[in-house]
Specification:
Layout (H helix, E strand, L loop, with lengths): L10 H14 L2 H18 L20
Length: 64
């Protein structure tokens, strides 16, 4: 991932540049960035996760 620094005069200009950058990337590149950010987040929280968290509920049905 290449790091690029852009100095903007205002937030609107910065946001437009961010959108242009995101749209110029392939879907795989965008997913790589999301995964990188997830890893950084979990590193800060001292958690070890190797994939997406799975959430499930077991529902007991009443026999009727």
């Amino acid at each position: 991932m290449e790091r690029v620094v852009k100095i903007s005069k205002n937030f609107k200009e910065a946001e437009e540049w961010d959108i242009e950058q995101a749209m110029s990337m392939t879907p795989e590149e965008r997913l790589d960035i999301v995964q990188y950010l997830r890893e950084q987040y979990y590193k800060i929280r001292n958690e070890d996760r190797k994939g997406l968290q799975r959430v499930y509920r077991i529902i007991k049905r009443k026999k009727g």
